[in-house]
Amino acid sequence: MTETFSPSASPLGCTNLKLRQFMRRVTQHYDVQLAKVGLKTTQYSLLSYIAKLGPIGQTELASHIKMGTSTLSRNLKPLVDAQWVVVSAGNDARSRLVSLTEAGRLKRAEAQRRWRVAQDDIQRMLGTDKVAQLHDLIDSSMALLEPLADEASGE
């Protein structure tokens, strides 16, 4: 018997609470795997974004990952302290460039193997179709909620 979704059904409960509960459960699983290589999920994500986009301006990186610049600075600090990331002067006195060091590339590669275990576990538990539907729902919902991001940034 397959589950069906009735679009006319009224959602029960708080959407924020349900999303936070779901995210906590998923994040805990990824954190358990990544802790085996000494990283948190947020740190692995940052290393991955920097590997893909870097060297990249700190403001541009914050925009890509939908994070405030001060939060990004706080999250970069332990990566800089571990010498996995370097923040250097940008094109002008106010800009900063973020890039991975060789040690950062190695740490990301090590963590990527643990991330893959977590990813495969979630996909196995939820099923490939449900994960694909979840990704589609998140992507389309993020696009619909873009006006809230503009509102929050004061635009």
Automatic annotation (TrEMBL):
HTH marR-type domain segment(s): 16-143
Origin: domain of life: Bacteria
A GO term, aspect molecular function: DNA-binding transcription factor activity
Gene3D superfamilies referenced in this protein's UniProt entry, alphabetically: Winged helix-like DNA-binding domain superfamily/Winged helix DNA-binding domain
Pfam family for this entry, one: MarR
GO annotation, biological process: response to stress
Protein's recorded name: Winged helix-turn-helix transcriptional regulator
